[in-house]
What we know:
Elements: H1 6-18, E1 22-28, E2 35-37, E3 47-49, E4 56-58, H2 59-62, E5 65-69
Antiparallel strand pairs: 1-2, 1-5, 3-4
Amino acid sequence: MKLHPWNEVVREGTKHIEAGRDIYQQFNCANCKRKQTMDVPNTFFEHGICEECGHDTDIKKDGMNFMLHMVLR
């Protein structure tokens, strides 16, 4: 997964949140490199614990992305 700088993702993610969409923050574990997805929507965490190896990743420093969840009518 391609990672982007903290400020860029927060700016773009906030636009979707304000439009009524849900986003889920994603990051790559700094230790094992596996993609992780937070289970709390519309929230930006500065650190994340890897579900695979337990490592604490500094998301704000390392970068992140998000998954967009939309309901199409």
